[in-house]
From TrEMBL:
Residues 33-211 form the SIS domain. Coiled coil: none annotated. It comes from the Bacteria. InterPro entries: RpiR-like_SIS, SIS_dom, SIS_dom_sf, SIS_GmhA/DiaA_subfam. This is SIS domain-containing protein.
Length: 246
């Protein structure tokens, strides 16, 4: 067995064990959030999803995704995307006021649900999103790391988790890197853990909706038979409410 094989196996164990802990830790909270989502679907509400920097990978996972909810609108500003400027995206997340600008454009209603993805959960953009949404009477789900937030500088004076209706903890260690175990320097786990949490939530929502007799608006893959036709109906329903659908 080569040293490379051992390394791969060790890292695989780190990820698998982390996901097991994430699922166990969040079992009750996932049920609570699934109930919030089911109530929103019943009320013909929208699920708004927001993040900055690499947390936008989680937003992409929620939006226009085969097997995903169609009633999702990404809350987004180009300055927050690292590919539009890595250093400037960090500065944008730390700038007070951007959240208010983005939310004004997106709109909020009490029967909507806002998800804010931010592993550190301390910068003004994610924190102000949560504060403003809560003030508007919209439930806020924070997908964050309680451990990372505890050690990060409180640039907004408070944290995302402290202003959320429900917290889903991705349990990412401060600094995000996971390998090697004795001095982590590489292999961030936040995207994997956060995407896993989102899909655990989708499974719970699906089961609860089926039990309640509620039909979920779900995208089909455009590359399977009948996918385009099924998606066309959803586009007619949501395109005016979700400009990002194009």
């Amino acid at each position: 067995m080569t040293s490379e094989t051992v390394t791969d196996s060790d890292y695989g164990d780190v990820v698998r064990n982390h996901l097991i802990r994430v699922e166990q830790q969040n079992a009750a909270a996932l049920d609570d959030v699934a109930e919030l989502l089911l109530a929103s679907v019943r009320a013909d509400g929208m699920v708004l999803t927001a993040g900055a920097g690499h947390s936008l990978a989680a937003v992409a996972e929620t939006f226009y995704r085969a097997g995903g909810l169609a009633c999702v609108r990404p809350v987004y500003h180009p300055e927050l995307l690292p590919m539009h400027g890595a250093v400037s995206s960090t500065a944008a997340e730390r700038r007070s006021g951007l959240a208010a600008e983005v939310l004004r454009e997106a709109g909020l209603a009490p029967h909507d649900v806002l998800f804010v993805f931010s592993t550190s959960g301390v910068n003004p953009y994610p924190v102000e999103l949560a504060v403003l949404a809560a003030d508007a009477g919209c439930p806020v789900v924070a997908v964050t790391s309680v451990a990372a937030s505890a050690l990060a500088p409180r640039r907004a004076g408070t944290t995302l988790a402290e202003n959320a209706t429900v917290v889903l903890d991705n349990m990412v260690p401060p600094g995000d890197a996971t390998y090697p175990a004795d001095a982590p320097a590489i292999a961030a786990v936040s995207t994997i853990a956060t995407t896993f949490l989102w899909n655990l939530l989708m499974v719970r929502l699906f089961d609860k909706a089926a039990k309640a007799g509620v039909s979920l608006p779900l995208w089909r893959s455009a590359n399977v038979e009948g996918g385009d036709a099924a998606n066309a109906d959803l586009l007619r329903k949501y395109q005016t409410r979700v400009p990002e659908l194009g």
